Amino acid sequence: MARRTKIYEGKAKTLYEGPEPDTLVQYFKDDATAFNAEKKAVIDGKGVLNNRLSEYFMVGLEQIGVPTHFLKRLNMREQLIRRVEIIPLEVIVRNFAAGSFSKRMGIEEGTPMPRPIVEFSYKDDSLGDPLVPEEYVIAFGWASQQELDDIVALALRVNDFLSGVMYGVGIKLVDFKIELGRVYDGDFMRLVVADEISPDSCRLWDIETGRKLDKDVFRQDLGDLADAYTEVATRLGVMPSNV
Ligand code: C5P
């Protein structure tokens, strides 16, 4: 097979040119980073788990009518995706207080939100992805007002879907981050869920015990990250060995 042309290397994934002009190949690495890459490690098998889990969530979203960039999984570590124009925002939905929200607001981790909160960070590693108000998003032209309304609606649909799926296997969806992209079809533009949805980008707590099953295990040195992700994959019935 011809060597793939690398077009972007991120902290946890690498993107290559795909077989068609409007496609890319997304490769999931085993690298784990936290605190804007101040903490780093290689976690054997993480890329395989996240590839499979992200496929599972993206396919489920498509099945309920939420468009995504996902086309098909190619192998244990790679998936074929649509080439999209990435909106430079991290869209975070919070159901319970945790992480940077708890720190910023002084609200104890696990406190339920009055309603799901949607917030935006500007995607810029050198700035540490700062939290930005909607005003900035519009004023700096990162998205239009209409797109922003659509992004919030989409993020809340993803939240309902993921919360339900996780609840079904005894896991509380505390919060998550998604990224959105634009796909153009002639004059028509639509928003799609892009990047990945995995325990790297969600907070997942066991409902019974409160055990953390997400990247906080790595951030907070709570144990073996691959074990936690394997637990999520096993409960969802998507262990890599089942593919
Ligand atoms: O750190 P914070 O509490 O703001 O994170 C909220 C959610 O967004 C968490 O699930 C976290 O894993 C995710 N996140 C992410 N990538 C970032 C920042 C946050 O996936 N750069």
UniProtKB/TrEMBL annotation:
One of its GO terms (cellular component) is cytosol. Transmembrane segments: none annotated. Pathway: Purine metabolism; IMP biosynthesis via de novo pathway; 5-amino-1-(5-phospho-D-ribosyl)imidazole-4-carboxamide from 5-amino-1-(5-phospho-D-ribosyl)imidazole-4-carboxylate: step 1/2. Residues 6-235 form the SAICAR synthetase/ADE2 N-terminal domain. Keywords: ATP-binding, Ligase, Nucleotide-binding, Purine biosynthesis. InterPro entries: SAICAR_synt/ADE2_N, SAICAR_synt_PurC, SAICAR_synth, SAICAR_synthetase, SAICAR_synthetase_CS. One of its GO terms (biological process) is 'de novo' IMP biosynthetic process. PANTHER family: MULTIFUNCTIONAL PROTEIN ADE2 (PTHR43599), SI:DKEY-6E2.2 (PTHR43599:SF3). This is Phosphoribosylaminoimidazole-succinocarboxamide synthase.
